Amino acid sequence: MVTLFLILMLTLPSYGEEVLRIDLKKAVELALSRNREILRIKKEILSLEDIYRAEKWDRFSPKVDLFTDKDGFTLFGSVLLLDFGNRLARIRSAKINTKIKREILKEFERQVKIKVVKLFMDLYLAEKLAEVKREEMAVAYVRFDRERERLKEGLSDRVKVAEWESTYRRFRAELMEAQRRYNETLYRIKRFLGIDVAKPVVIDLSDLLEFSFPEDKVLDPGYILKRVENNYLVKVKSLEIAYLESRAKEQKRILYPELYAYLTGFTPYEDFGKTKAGANLVLRVPLFDGRTSFYREKSFLDLKRAVEIEREDIIERLKERALTLPYVWEELLAEYQDAVAFDRWAQENLDLSRSNYELELAFDLGYAMSTKTEAERRVMEAKFRIIIFLMRVYDLMGEDPMRAFSEEHPFLTERVEEI
Questions:
Q1: How many whole angstroms separate alpha carbon 412 and alpha carbon 419?
Q2: Contact at 8 Å (CB) between 371 and 135?
Q3: What DSSP line would sit under 291-327, residue for residue?
Q4: How far is it, in rounded angstroms, from Cα 226 to Cα 237?
Q5: pTM above 0.85, yes or no
Q6: How many helices (DSSP H) and strands (DSSP E) are in the chain?
Q7: Do 242 and 191 have their domain in common?
Q8: Is the dihedral of CA 177, 180, 186, 187 positive or negative?
Q9: Strands (E), 84-223
Q10: 103 lies in which domain range?
């Protein structure tokens, strides 16, 4: 098993502090539980749920009022028994609002998972790039140092010395840049996971480095086309349509009957011990509303039609994207195979340089080693692009993007060789 631990504590001493070990699964768990944006959305959902409960309670909750005039006190209680009008619509609107926010939360959680994986990838690539630059710098420094010795012996000139010093300094600057990118990435990981950026952490990249995928399969867009309506954008737009339809029903105030029960108790000032009680059932049927409810209803219905058009456009764009995925898959496979071929050549070139090793050819060996390291970086970079591609395919279908690390992918089918 190939396992790579990158210690995210290059500049700060630990002084015996406990080191937190994090693999990809642990990182996703931390991000989902500590990410500040996720926590904010969850609080918004709690607020919407409170509104929903308030609307449900408000529908049939009893109301009691105390009136007083010159004759005495009156307690007046009322409760809605039956409602055929907009109160039910208000409850539905509040519930749909909560569902919309939940769909947004699910999508944000999927994007957080993709972000965590990308940060892990960036960390590995930055570390590997630093390794390449370190090897190139070492070779350039040896050439620079040897050229200075040759100058002292009269076997070289100042131009060549300056040329190799310039090459060495350039590789050194590139190494400093790669190390800076590495450190920035590791601090970004800790902040994104809600970890103190000064805390020593060990990152386990084995899930990424051991990732394998079927190179001999093709992508079937038909499987994805059947599931584009599970995409969160389509779901949110469908819920928005239902919400606007419910809001339109809220505006309907004409000929929607309501049945109330009323209880009254009157106590005169002259005789506090004598209370007159009464009860009554009242059927209320609104016949006219001067608050232009018709136009308000029409406004929400027009918005509903606009969102329906937007939803259809989103579905078509998702279908278009699904149909282009096979071409993207083949392109990524070709890039990966190209990187593997380059790595194979780099290995052969390194083996040849080792077998021909002599003092004069030592620089060729150094360059062969750095070329091999760069080839390994390219292979992993091409593999990482495939992982992100698979994660985005699952996200497009509204599924967990971490399924990209599973062994089977239902949208990949056997490749049929042409005769």
A1: 21
A2: no
A3: S-HHHHHHHHHHHHHHHHHHHHHHHHHHHHHHHHHHH
A4: 18
A5: no
A6: 9, 9
A7: no
A8: negative
A9: 201-204, 217-219
A10: 1-59+84-208
Residue 162 confidence (pLDDT):
92
What per-residue confidence (pLDDT) applies to 4? 35
Give residue-wise pLDDT tens across range 135-144: 888 888 888 8
Rounded CA gap, 276 and 33, in Å? 60
Identify which of 328, 381, 387, 386 has the alpha carbon closest to the alpha carbon of residue 117: 387
CATH number at 128 reads 1.20.1600.10
First to last CA, the chain: 39
Q: Are residues 189 and 240 in the same domain?
A: no
With beta carbons less than 8 A apart as the criterion, state whether 51 and 94 touch. yes
Q: In this structure, are 221 and 179 located in the same domain?
A: no
Q: For residue 88, give both structure tokens.
A: 């039910």
Digit-coded pLDDT (tens) for 304-328: 999 999 999 999 999 999 999 999 9
Residue 382, token pair as written in the block: 């091409």
Written as six digits, the tokens of 128 are 């590997």
Instruction: State how many domains the chain has.
Output: 2
The Cα 104–Cα 48 span in angstroms is 13
Q: How many residues does the chain have?
A: 419
Helix boundaries (H) for 267-292: none
